[in-house]
Design brief:
The structure holds two protein chains of two kinds. Chain A is an alpha/beta fold. Chain A is 31% helix and 19% strand. Chain A is built from eleven helices and ten strands. Chain A has helices spanning 40-46, 51-55, 65-80, 108-120, 138-147, 162-175, 192-198, 217-222, 240-248, 282-285, 292-305; strands spanning 17-25, 97-102, 153-156, 181-188, 208-216, 229-237, 257-260, 278-280, 312-316, 324-330. In chain A, a hairpin with a 7-residue loop joins strand 9 (312-316) and strand 10. Classes of the chains: A alpha/beta, B alpha/beta.
Chain lengths: 337, 418
């Protein structure tokens, strides 16, 4: 006997997706409007983020640094979105909130150090408390546990494009009705393992986290939440030019700003680019890897907050990478193109 | 709303293709063997379910997980009759440990390491020209999460086909950490057995091609996939979160627990998972728990981490099409909490199966549950196609280039903007 399928298909919503909160755990910048103009001098002068000072010490002891940074940014984004009270109470059902994390380098230090300990001694000398940190989804899990977020929980480790990919997938989760909202967090840290494996000095690498909350504009309206930006087209294509062409296809005009990826090959030689200067956040913060795309989206929000009137383009990845991801963000309330 | 699995590929310790793996599982063959690539004296557990393809005993080389992924994807594409040019086809890879083994070898043993190879997009671009690729590190639920995401992508009209995959190889850090925390080292994976001692890792990769429901031949229909998070404990599963994921899958699939014929258990053989899974199933199914057949293929493949859920999806698809249910080997005495469960034990069982549930639960409390349905006629023992069991409903083959306008996905819009 055949089992009938549900009568009504679940349509993917075509409502606009808005950014309703931003949280930063970055050295030298506390206000999102100051993000686009952040300088390397100011970042270096500020010293590293102190998670214990922002979160309290409780529960931090066995968390790795990227998890701690992610908690800082995530907490601030949830508060900014008026989803979390000062007492840490979630204002909505936990099942309604998804978590989407992006980090390429976060678990490398734990993994490599455990492997070294085993070779030098045996598994007897390995700390059992390292087990959660050896899993690349520890950031997403830690954030979910801290704030009681029981919706879908995704951890992207997708290379240079990962942060923008995470924002796209968060928006799709919401459009698909999997959750009412999603907390997206990009987090990376520098340590001797990461530095050596990447062939960089620690100072060249981001030590920080950025978070945004995305939800349907209609949902934000229903709970009287501020909308900080609207998400537009997204693409992941081979090469910067192909990506930019796709994202901007059919757009009414050029973006007002482009947050690009500065590594070799990060700036395209296409018709768009001579007319649009690219703005490189890594000059101030260091190579941001999986956190870059989320950092760029937050910078777009900051640019809008400071009066930016046109769309903002963000791209991550270089021509020499497996692909380049890009997204267009618009000031809130402009509606779809 | 439903989707079709139009091609499958698999590589594991027990076989190098879907046919080989399924045949081995039905025959009750295990991939268990003494550790091949690690220094055994560093560990209490001395066995695993590894793919035996290292160049020499006791040595190891990077990028094995990537190699198996490419093989599984190639098999799935061929099986689905799809062109190997994936320029416009999204590929979502669920993994627990990505290429962290390569990072270990690079850090500790001086092997060549490139951070661009930590995620699978680099290799997928090189082999298949794929650019819409996603490496999702979602622990042991990763590849079923990837399946859910693929369903959503198809629903959003952002693609005509999606490749869903999973791959993992053992890392010393994960094998070692499990070794450190398990009270007694297990000698094999014995899901749901009263004397189970824990899990042992396995190597494996798996891939499926997912299409919309109106597309041609298929191995099985996906009715729904759920995703949620316990938000409770970093490693221990929560029966409440698991039960919620199971209920969500049934509700999205439009089925009741009483209609499920077969459950592919997550069944890791750890005290905690099997207890939580049994409790959750008992809670959701209630009196109907004695109706479905249940089996746990990790008893033969070991715990293949991120790809394990999708491997069970492929096994479920084969079981639906052929009516053959692989056994759970090593299950001598089922735990008391599962006393009423109808396990398929020791030898394969024949059964007319129409609906199957696949469980996948991972560290961090990530849960994903899939509901699959048989395609085709009324009986459960159809075999259409060649002798070696290319069990496919219909016989249409031929290459196909999938995808029109390439790769633009409105964030928050539907297909209307393309």
């Amino acid at each position: 006997m055949a089992v009938p399928l549900p009568a009504a298909p679940r349509p993917t919503s075509t409502d606009p997706i808005a950014v309703t909160g931003v949280g930063l755990a970055l050295p030298g910048v506390e206000d999102v409007a100051a993000l686009p103009g952040a300088t390397r001098t100011a970042v270096r002068a500020a010293g590293p983020v102190q998670p214990a000072a922002r979160l309290g010490r409780r529960g931090l002891r066995y968390l790795d640094r990227t998890s701690q940074l992610a908690l800082c940014a995530g907490q601030d984004a949830l508060r900014d979105a008026t989803l979390l009270s000062a007492d840490g109470e979630l204002a909505v059902a936990g099942e309604s909130v998804a978590v989407v994390a992006s980090s390429n380098l976060g678990s490398l230090d734990t993994v490599c150090q455990v492997a070294s300990t085993i070779a030098e001694q045996t598994t007897d000398r390995v700390s059992p408390m390292a087990l959660p940190n050896a899993s690349s989804n520890v950031i997403a899990a830690v954030v979910a546990m801290r704030f009681g977020l029981r919706g879908p929980n995704l951890a992207f480790t997708n290379g240079p494009t990962s942060g923008i990919d995470a924002v796209f997938w968060a928006a799709l989760l919401v459009s698909a009705g999997r959750c009412a909202r999603a907390l997206v967090i990009g987090a990376e840290t520098s340590n001797p393992v990461v530095a050596r494996l990447l062939g960089r000095t620690a100072g060249e690498l981001l030590d920080g986290a950025v978070a945004v909350v995305v939800e349907r504009a209609a949902t934000a309206d229903d709970r009287a939440a501020s909308q900080l930006a609207e998400l537009g087209r997204y693409a992941r294509r081979p090469g910067v030019a192909a990506c930019v062409d796709q994202v901007l296809a059919g757009a009414p005009g050029l973006p007002g700003i482009w947050f690009a990826d500065s590594r070799p090959g990060g700036t395209a030689a296409g018709p768009v680019t001579p007319r649009l200067a690219d703005h490189d956040l890594t000059a101030a913060f260091g190579l941001a890897s999986g956190a870059l795309g989320v950092l760029q989206c937050a910078a777009a929000v900051g640019w809008f907050a400071a009066g930016g009137a046109d769309a903002a383009l963000v791209t991550a990845g270089a021509d020499t990478d497996d692909a380049v991801a890009g997204m267009l963000l618009r000031p809130a309330g402009r509606g779809r193109r | 709303m439903s989707w079709l699995i139009s091609g499958t590929g698999a590589v594991a310790s027990i076989g190098g293709s879907t046919d080989e793996v399924f045949a081995a599982l039905c025959a009750g063959q295990s991939g268990l063997a003494p550790l091949r690539g690690f220094d055994r004296c560093r560990y209490r557990a001395r066995s695993a379910y590894e793919i035996d393809d290292r160049p020499a005993p006791g040595t190891d080389v990077p990028l094995r997980a990537t190699g198996w992924l490419l093989r599984a994807v190639a098999e799935a594409l061929a099986d689905a009759g799809l062109d190997t040019d994936l320029s416009d086809v999204p590929v979502i890879v669920g993994t627990g440990l990505r290429e962290l083994r390569s990072a270990e070898l690079g850090w500790r043993d001086g092997a060549r390491f490139d951070a661009a190879e930590l995620h699978f997009g680099t290799a997928l671009r090189e082999r298949f020209a794929a650019a819409r690729t996603y490496t999702l590190s979602n622990a042991c639920a990763a590849s079923v999460y990837a399946l859910a995401m693929a369903c959503d992508l198809l629903d959003a009209d952002a693609a005509d086909a999606v490749v869903v995959a999973g791959t993992d190889t053992l890392t010393e850090s994960m094998f070692g950490l499990l070794d450190r925390v398990q009270l007694e080292p297990p000698d094999q994976v014995r899901p749901f057995d009263v004397a189970r001692r824990g899990t042992l890792l396995g190597d494996g990769a798996v891939a499926v091609v997912l299409r919309r429901a109106d597309h041609g031949p298929a191995a099985a229909r996906v009715r729904a996939v759920s995703m949620n998070c316990d938000a409770s404990h970093p490693t221990a599963p929560d029966p409440g979160g698991i039960a919620a994921a199971i209920r969500m899958a049934h509700e999205r699939a439009g089925v009741t627990a009483g209609q499920v014929d077969l459950i592919l258990l997550h069944g890791t053989g750890t005290p905690l998972n099997d207890e939580a899974e049994a409790a959750a199933l008992g809670d959701v199914f209630g009196a109907a728990i004695d109706r479905p057949l249940l089996t746990a293929v990790k008893s033969m493949t070991g715990h293949t981490s991120g790809g394990s859920g999708l491997l069970s999806v492929i096994v479920a698809a084969r079981a639906l099409a052929t009516g053959r249910i692989p056994p759970t080997i090593g299950l001598r005495e089922p735990m008391a909490e599962a006393a009423r469960f109808r396990f398929v034990r020791h030898t394969e069982q024949a059964a007319d199966i129409r609906l199957a549930q696949v469980d996948a639960f991972g560290f961090g409390g990530v849960n994903a549950v899939a509901v699959l349905e048989r395609v085709g006629g009324e009986t459960g023992t159809e075999r259409v196609g060649g002798e070696t069991g290319t069990e496919r409903v219909g016989g249409e083959t031929g290459t196909e280039r999938v995808g029109g306008e390439a790769g633009t996905e409105p964030a928050g819009g539907g297909g209307a903007e393309r």
